């Protein structure tokens, strides 16, 4: 081994030695840093917690949106329809009362004045004009007799025929009743028997109606045909549809507050016999509305509250700026806070005013309480709190890992 080779080997050994000691020093420094991180874990986690709260705290824009959301919720609450008292039987009218007749004449006269510019088109297929539809008070589904008394033998129960005809259904009537009016037909829910078995399934029949002086049923037709004929008539003149909607609304309004009233929606279609028994006992659509108004009011207020929350969420997301608002998940936390806080403020206001009204003896205080909005608030309180805690946990966990793995300042977060 010559002198140069010796020097070369000695330099290589020194370089390896220096690198080894350097690595040892680096590992020792990193070990001290990690130990320091663990030693200060509590303060670091506290700082991370504070950082999360700072980054998800509401800005001036957020506060403005919160005020808007709260105002909308309060308007919704205090504009909800109040609890209606039961419509007493002694206040009901007979079906041909002069008050009803006067109302019908007045509505028809107003309709004439409002639509004087509509032209009348003669039908090529014999359908009634829009004037005949709108200005003739009688509707085809009021016909209760047949052109042949022995024909089919359907029992329409005389004055209680409303329970059998889908045109008188407060909801289905807007489909079947309107089609019946346009096509001069009647659609009924008959008793349907085969042998001794009675089918509890939706079953309907339709018949043509003579709208002249005889005012009676004629031949049976497939139900689909009443809609086909209606579309044909509307194709000739779209005004017939508008006139039929007017006639349907006018007829339901004239029947609604009478002694017999209107049947419960859908029940005739589901079980015509049960519907008749209930209707015969004097339970009608007004009774149904009274008994279900709390449920309907709750569903309505809950849906309105949810829609407002969705609108506010969309508005707030519109203001997101990735350069100043950090991670989008943290911005979503602010959105949730705005919605939750607005719901809590509005619901608390309603709880307070309900409690005060109940304390001073207002019997309708509990009935008018915004139960739907209250339930939405409880739901959001649970789900939004859970969401915020989840995002907070992820934020702190990710930042902690970054600090442990980073060689930078442990408080540089």
Furnish the topology, listing elements before pairings.
Blueprint: H1 3-39, H2 41-55, H3 60-78, H4 98-114, H5 130-135, H6 176-183, E1 185-188, E2 193-194, E3 197-198, E4 205-210, E5 216-221, H7 223-236, H8 239-256, H9 267-270, H10 272-280, H11 285-318, H12 328-359, H13 371-405
Antiparallel strand pairs: 1-4, 2-3, 4-5
Helix pairs in contact: 2-13, 3-11, 3-12, 6-7, 6-8, 11-12, 11-13, 12-13
Which descriptors would you attach to this protein?
3-stranded antiparallel beta sheet, mainly alpha, single chain, 60% helix, 3 domains, two-stranded antiparallel sheet, 5 strands, 413 residues
Would you tell me the structural class of the helices and strands?
mainly alpha
Overall domain count = 3
**Rg over C-alpha atoms, rounded to the nearest angstrom:** 37 Å
SSE order in H/E notation? HHHHHHEEEEEHHHHHHH
Q: Uncertain segments of ≥5 residues (pLDDT<50)?
A: none
Q: Biggest β-sheet: count, sense, barrel?
A: 3 strands, antiparallel
> Percent range for helical residues?
55-70%
Biggest sheet strand line-up: 1-4-5
Number of helices: 13
Distance between the termini: 57 Å
- Broad shape: elongated
Which strand-content bin applies to the residues? under 5%
The number of E-state strands comes to 5
Mean pLDDT: 82
